[in-house]
Specification:
Elements (H helix, E strand, L loop, with lengths): L2 E4 L6 E4 L42 E4 L9 E7 L13 E4 L2 E4 L4 E6 L13 H19 L6 E8 L11 E7 L4 H17 L3 H12 L3 E4 L3 E4 L10 E5 L11 H21 L5 E6 L14 E6 L6 H6 L2 E3 L3 H10 L10
Parallel strand pairs: 2-15
Antiparallel strand pairs: 1-2, 3-4, 4-7, 5-6, 7-9, 8-9, 8-13, 10-11, 11-12, 12-14, 13-14
Helix pairs in contact: 1-4
The structure holds zinc ion (ZN) (2 copies).
Length: about 350
């Protein structure tokens, strides 16, 4: 018998298709040997030595060398083909019946490593910490501009996840609007807060730690869960155990622990499911909701193991052909090699 499950925070429904349910092992990618990538590619705009192929960098972690020169560890540049571009304050106008505004905002690329052939799971823990500290730096910088109503940090890993350039990179987009889906989620969280006097995400963390059915990792500051109403197989959320509305508020001494839990989670996917494609995004409060008691930032990972089809398009209800509890159990068991034993 299939089952409908509701997300406690967003109120979205999902169908867990237990009849068609696959075992976690069924999602392990057939290991067609991936193309062996070179450490450096002459034609890649993100490789060291090719700094002139990108717009001028806005920020970098580097060891002594000058801007736009090799020697960087993490490099941030404006996207060459941006979805939104910096400009003055955006004004709304009418186009007949319709509302429109100039595409004002920021679109940056975070080049995570000089190495062309890496991915998050094969970075070192220190490299991942560098990447996360750059996320925080850019978030704080973009957040100073009140026109940036929402700042989204996200990553597309692999072709199925929509990446066009292989060189490891994440993206940051700052938008001048807050989309209806984000507002609706915040509204539900606010309603819960009004009724119960508690944050709905803190409530979920406490409950999940008590029942232990969907916990993949339980660290002092963060918990990794397969959500009760996961929309796709092996969906994961990493939630801070401390209440905090905005990713920009993460204290410096929690950046290392957050990077470590993200890195370990991505390595579990990499070794457990044999390098699946995935997207991740840091879901955080819009500018006007920062500091609110009901908003609670978290990171969501969505592996691209299935393709949403017409039903999902028409209803916004996802059909998940796996059991969240089994996915969590599978990932708990995945053992990842010591970094020193790789390569
Ligand atoms: Zn490259
Ligand atoms: Zn909370």
């Amino acid at each position: 018998m299939p089952e409908l499950r509701q997300d406690f925070a967003t109120k979205e429904w999902v169908i867990i298709a237990t009849e068609r349910a696959k075992r976690p092992e069924d999602f392990v990618k057939e290991r067609s040997e991936p193309d062996r990538l070179p450490e450096r590619d002459d034609k890649c705009p993100f490789c060291p030595g090719n700094e002139r192929m990108t717009p001028e960098e806005t920020y970098a972690l580097r060891n002594g060398s000058g801007p736009n020169e090799p020697g960087w560890l993490v490099r941030v540049v404006p996207n060459k083909f941006p979805a939104l571009v910096p400009d003055s304050r955006p004004y709304r106008s009418r186009s007949g019946l319709y509302l429109r505004m100039k595409g004002v905002g920021f679109h940056e690329v975070v080049i995570e490593t000089p190495r062309h052939d890496k991915c998050p799971a094969t970075l070192t823990e220190d490299e991942m910490t560098g990447v996360v500290s750059v996320y925080k730096q850019r978030y704080s910088e973009l957040n100073r501009n009140p026109t940036n109503e929402l700042i989204l940090i996200f990553r597309n890993q692999g072709k199925q996840a929509g990446t066009s350039l292989i060189h490891p990179h994440s993206q940051i987009v700052a938008t001048p609007i807050v989309p209806p889906a984000v507002r609706r989620t915040l509204y539900e969280a606010e309603r819960f807060y009004d009724a119960m006097g508690r944050c709905v995400h803190c409530e979920i963390v406490n409950y999940e730690l008590r029942v232990q059915e969907r916990v993949v990792m339980d660290e002092p500051d963060f918990v990794v869960l397969v959500p009760y109403a996961a929309q796709v197989p092996f969906e994961l959320t990493i939630i801070p155990k401390f209440h905090q509305a905005s990713f920009g508020e993460i204290p410096d001494d929690k950046i290392g622990p957050f990077a470590r839990v993200l890195w370990t989670t991505l390595r579990k996917l990499y070794y457990g499911l044999k390098n699946p494609d995935y997207n991740f995004a840091i879901i955080t409060a819009p500018h006007y909701s920062q500091g609110e008691p009901h908003a609670h930032w978290h990171l969501r990972i969505r592996p691209r193991l299935t393709t949403p089809a017409g039903f999902e398009m028409g209803t916004q209800i996802f059909i998940n052909t796996s059991l969240p509890e089994e996915n969590a159990h599978f990932l708990r068991q995945v053992s990842i090699p010591e970094p020193s034993s790789e390569q």
